[in-house]
Write a structure and sequence with these properties.
Elements (H helix, E strand, L loop, with lengths): L3 E5 L6 H12 L3 E3 H9 L3 H27 L4 E3 L8 H7 L4 E7 L2 H5 L17 H19 L2 E4 L1 H5 L4 H21 L1
Helix pairs in contact: 1-8, 2-3
C-alpha cells in the first residue's frame, strides 16, 4: 500500500524544507499543510489567528488535513506544528495509509534557527522564541512521539554535515523506504 508521509515537529525542525527534498527523493508530490490551509481559507495564517483566534485556526487546520488525506494521491505533507493537538488529527495520523515522521529537536537548538515571521504567530509578543519553543515542546513532544512511526533527530545533521538539510532528507527517505519494505514483508 502506497502511503502518505506526514512530517511533524516543532516550528523550525525542517518539515517544509526537508519535506520537499524527501518528496523529490521518493518521487511524490509535496504539500505544505499551512500553505494549503491559506489557499483554502483565502487568508494568511496571521489573518486567521487575528480574526478567528487559535481555536478557529485549529478548526481550519483539521479540515484542511482531512482534505489532504482524502483527496490527494499519496504525497509528502509538512504538517503544521500544532497538528497533533486535536484528537481527530492524531487519529488521522494513525491511519494505516499514513506514515508519520517526527523531526525531533531540542527547543534551544530550534530557537537559534527560527525568527518571528507572519506564518509563525505564536512567536509574536514579548516572550522569547526559546521560551515559546520550550513551552510548545513540553505541550507537544509526547503527542508527536505518540503518532510517530519514525523519529529522526534533526540536530546531529546540523552538527556534522556541510549540507544538513540534504543529509537529513536522505536519512528520512532511506528510513521511509526501509519502513515501507518492512511493512510489505
Amino acid at each position: 500500500m502506497v502511503q502518505h508521509v506526514v512530517l511533524v515537529g516543532l516550528m523550525g525542525s525542517g518539515k517544509t524544507t526537508v519535506g520537499k527534498r524527501v518528496a523529490a527523493r521518493l518521487g511524490r508530490h509535496f504539500v505544505d499543510a499551512d500553505v494549503a490551509l491559506e489557499e483554502i481559507a483565502d487568508r494568511s495564517i496571521a489573518e486567521i489567528f487575528e480574526r478567528d483566534g487559535e481555536a478557529g485556526f485549529r478548526d481550519l487546520e483539521a479540515d484542511t488535513f482531512e482534505e489532504l488525506l482524502e483527496h490527494h494521491e499519496p504525497c509528502v505533507i509538512a504538517g503544521g506544528g500544532g497538528l497533533v493537538l486535536r484528537p481527530e488529527n492524531r487519529a488521522r495520523l494513525r491511519r494505516p495509509d499514513v506514515t508519520v515522521v517526527y523531526l525531533e529537536a531540542d527547543p534551544a537548538f530550534l530557537a537559534s534557527r527560527v525568527k518571528p515571521k507572519p506564518h509563525r504567530p505564536l512567536l509574536h509578543g514579548d516572550v522569547s522564541p526559546r521560551e515559546v519553543l520550550a513551552r510548545l515542546h513540553d505541550e507537544r513532544a509526547h503527542l508527536y512521539a505518540e503518532v510517530a512511526d519514525l523519529t529522526v533527530s534533526v540536530q546531529p545533521f546540523h552538527d556534522g554535515s556541510a549540507s544538513p538539510k540534504d543529509a537529513l532528507a536522505t536519512e528520512v527517505a532511506d528510513r521511509l523506504l526501509a519502513h515501507e519494505a518492512g511493512a510489505r514483508a
